[in-house]
Design goal:
heterodimer, A: alpha/beta, Elongation Factor Tu (Ef-tu), domain 3, 2 domains, six-stranded antiparallel β-sheet, globular, B: Jelly Rolls
């Protein structure tokens, strides 16, 4: 089961990390991914304040004078101190964030929350089902799986997105597909006839995807409705609920379970999540009141 | 020596678990086909005389939208079924289907199979159950597509 990391592993000695105190980071690169998503690459202004993270965790990103938003980390957990955050433009903070340029500073608090239990996949097939921008929090898990490729059996990524133009990390996906030891299937909800790939919802790929359901770790991230239907298909295929994990999203504010903004039933997403074992949130998935 | 398609039918996920006698009945209505990329398998409005089980390859189900051109609404790949209009009047295709990749499939003569289903209602019930499962899955998938769940709704 996913666990809260006790303590960031590479905080500089002598520093007592205050989870409410942002660390200044400088933008190294800002990259437009799709029409409404972009990735910021960041390094700490003071390298002694770098921290490690586990795949699936998130940071609070603070645009000075504007506000703070929770964004999953989408970079390689074995390539710290570099941080990458892929974000969709949805409100004032992210709109301003998109205007930031190389060399400008922002504040970062984190890392927060539980992580993808990649280690649970050792000796198993690992199937990753991502929808839309849900690929971003899963990318660190993919980096880790690829780095330790020999420990796992099949690694399958099923990625669904709205259209070919909305696909994240296209170059990287093509590169990974070319490695021949990863099964990568992409599908889009709609496409012009020039698109040569799959069209259809991501859940429709699950019945015939090449993995052994009796020995599979499943990691799922995307819009909640997509995750609900994905889980149904995974269970129907025979994947065990106890080896199925989802990443939830709520309005995280403090990041440490104090403020209660991100309450999801009896849990706080910032502290007990965002990565949950299916059995912990299965009963509240799809309840409109929650 | 004549090779029948029965072993191939039995292996295809769509006919998994079907009774031997039913497999024998439908084998007589089937044939192996191969489509090159770009081949138009059927066209909207034409008579729906066949359906296909894809063995290997990819087929796009498409639709012409004025001012937007040809739009792909679904792709059908390995182990999947292409076409159910042969089952329901007026037996006309509602979409175009075009091979995206070199595609091997089993083609079934719809009239032949409808006749056999009329003669043997057990077979008919089995076939309709299997197709209803496909129709249900496609309806569910279409609803999810309509939700535009990856859209920016904030």
């Amino acid at each position: 089961m996913a666990t809260m990391l006790e303590e960031p592993e590479v905080r500089a000695a002598g520093l007592v990390p205050d989870p409410m105190l942002p660390t200044p980071y400088l933008i190294q690169r800002a990259k437009q991914e799709t029409d409404d998503t972009f990735t910021l690459e960041l390094l700490p202004e003071d390298s002694s304040r770098a921290f490690s993270f586990a795949p699936g965790q998130f940071n609070m990103l603070y645009v000075f004078g504007v506000g703070e938003v929770p964004i999953s980390i989408s970079s390689d957990p074995d390539d710290v101190p570099l941080l990458k955050h892929t974000t969709r433009v949805v409100g004032t903070v992210t709109k301003t964030m998109r205007q930031l340029k190389r060399g400008e500073a922002m504040g970062i608090r984190g890392p927060f929350g539980t992580h993808w239990p990649v280690e649970e996949g050792v000796g198993r097939d690992v199937v990753i089902v991502a929808g839309g921008i849900g690929l971003a929090p899963l990318r660190p898990a993919l980096y880790r799986l690829i780095r330790e490729r020999e420990k796992y059996r099949k690694i399958v990524l099923l990625y669904g997105t709205r259209s070919p133009e909305d696909m994240l990390y296209r170059q990287e996906l093509e590169q990974w597909r070319g490695k021949f030891d990863l099964e990568i299937q992409v599908t889009v909800d709609r496409a012009a006839s020039s698109w040569r790939g799959n069209v259809g919802v991501v859940t429709s790929m699950i019945p015939r995807a090449p993995f052994d359901p009796s020995n599979t770790l499943a990691l799922v991230c995307g819009p909640e409705v997509m995750m609900r239907f994905t889980v149904m298909e995974l269970l129907r295929r025979g994947v065990a609920a106890e080896h199925t994990y989802l990443s939830a999203e709520r309005n995280m504010k403090c990041g440490i379970g104090w403020c209660g903004h991100c309450q999801l039933g009896p849990t706080f997403v910032c502290k007990d999540g965002p990565v949950f074992a299916l059995h912990r949130i299965a009963a509240i998935l799809g309840k409109s009141e929650i | 020596m004549i090779h029948t398609l029965e072993p191939i039918l039995k292996e295809h996920p769509f006919f998994q678990g079907m009774e031997e006698r039913h497999i024998q009945l439908i084998a007589g209505c089937s044939m192996n086909v191969r489509f090159e990329p770009g081949h138009l398998i059927f066209h909207e409005g034409d008579a729906a005389d066949h359906f296909y089980l894809i063995r290997e390859g990819l087929v796009s189900v498409q639709f012409v939208i004025p001012h937007r051109g040809l739009t792909t609404v679904l792709t059908v790949g390995n182990g999947e079924v292409l076409g159910w209009s042969w089952l329901f009047p007026p037996y006309r295709w509602h979409f175009d289907a075009r091979a995206q990749q070199p595609t091997h499939a089993l083609a079934f003569d719809g009239k032949c199979l409808r006749g056999k289903c009329e003669e043997d209602h057990d077979l008919g019930y089995d076939i309709y159950k299997r197709f209803m499962q496909v129709v249900t899955e496609r309806l569910e998938a279409t609803r999810l597509q309509l939700l535009d769940m990856y859209g920016n709704h904030a």
